[in-house]
UniProtKB/TrEMBL annotation:
Matches recorded under InterPro entries: AAA+_ATPase (IPR003593), ABC_transporter-like_ATP-bd (IPR003439), ABC_transporter-like_CS (IPR017871), BCAA_Transport_ATP-bd_LivF (IPR052156), P-loop_NTPase (IPR027417)
Family stated for the protein in its record: Belongs to the ABC transporter superfamily.
CDD domains found in the cross-reference section: ABC_TM1139_LivF_branched (cd03224)
Nucleotide-binding in keyword set: yes
Lineage: superkingdom: Bacteria
The protein's name in its UniProt record: ABC transporter ATP-binding protein
GO molecular function list: ATP binding; ATP hydrolysis activity; branched-chain amino acid transmembrane transporter activity
Residues in ABC transporter domain copies: 4-236
Amino acid sequence: MTLLELENITASYGPVQVIDGVSLSVPDGGAVGILGANGAGKTTTLRAICGMVRAGGSIRFEGREIRGMGPDRIAGIGIAHVPEGRGTFAGLSVKENLRVGAYLRKDRAKVSSDIDYLLDLFPNLKARYTSAGSALSGGEQQMLAISRAYMARPKLLMLDEASLGLAPGTAKSVYQAIARLRQESDIAMLVVEQNANLALDLVDTATVLETGRSVLTGASEELKSMDEIRRAYLGG
Ligand code: ATP
């Protein structure tokens, strides 16, 4: 079954149209990448889905049109967004950030076991459990942002440039943890990433955006083997 379906999305900032026909679909439990150069419209696509940017076209989630809904409602129906730049609360501890992520949930016992699970997935966060968000390294903040989003138990987790600003080894371990999260839950993922190598190891399929349009969609393995993609996004 299709969880999320974008059909011919458009979006503008003032008079400037930056998305001009993005279509993609994320199956239940699937993981899909959005690749593309700087400014191609990847971040704007995620913002359109979570209701932060007004969009044209159709955005369906579990078969229902959600275009035009506000960010709160969209979060409430099971879409979580980890924005570029992370968005954790600097003044709150790791523990408090995780609790804030779960604020809409009633299943308190499960909330505690989810926290235990995340601290096992990200041992760095366990060591920093009572530290303020502001005291964390860039990699730890990214781990916290992902964990906080997961605490809402979304059906779809949208990650924007999870590797941005991280040392290569840290970026790799963050992606390994995301892959484990994927394997061990039924969560679906939509992943925006400049580092196509990392993204293509995680996702099943990916869509390439060029100046606000989807120009190519394919299976990860297929994209990795395409010369054009290798030259543009895989450094080879
Ligand atoms: P990046 O990796 O640089 O974030 P991206 O593919 O995610 O690139 P977007 O951030 O979606 O691209 O930006 C698409 C276009 O919209 C770019 O030309 C960008 O300069 C422009 N843009 C983004 N945010 C705004 C804004 N708030 N106001 C005006 N223009 C914007």
